[in-house]
Design goal:
Beta Polymerase, domain 2; 100 residues; globular; 22% strand; alpha/beta; 4 helices; five-stranded mixed sheet
């Protein structure tokens, strides 16, 4: 899986800052923005490794993400051992690590 170390996308920069604040293990951008076939109005699809997160931690992370000033939707998927294997394959094939 590819990794983005530096990005000019301010939304991705904010997501990285919030992930750091909440001590998230890994954030993966997937979908059209990761593949590079997005439009100006495409949403952000992010996957979070959630095996060690409590429901409260997930809620607090979601709240901070929801506060990012953008007109684009940010969809969060929490992945763990019970996540559908085909979905995980798609994320690993197309996904880009934006934080770990």
């Amino acid at each position: 899986m590819k990794k983005i170390n530096d990005t000019k996308d301010t939304v991705l920069q904010k997501i990285k800052e919030i992930a750091m604040k909440h001590e998230i293990k890994r954030v993966i951008l997937f979908g059209s923005r990761a593949r590079g076939d997005n439009s100006d109005v495409s949403d952000y699809d992010i996957a979070i490794h959630a095996s060690s997160l409590t429901e409260l931690e997930k809620t607090l992370f979601y709240h901070d993400i929801d506060e990012i000033e953008t007109l684009k939707k940010i969809d969060i998927v929490y992945i763990d051992a019970e996540t559908d294997k085909e979905f995980l394959y798609n994320i690993s094939r197309d996904g880009v690590i934006i934080y770990e």
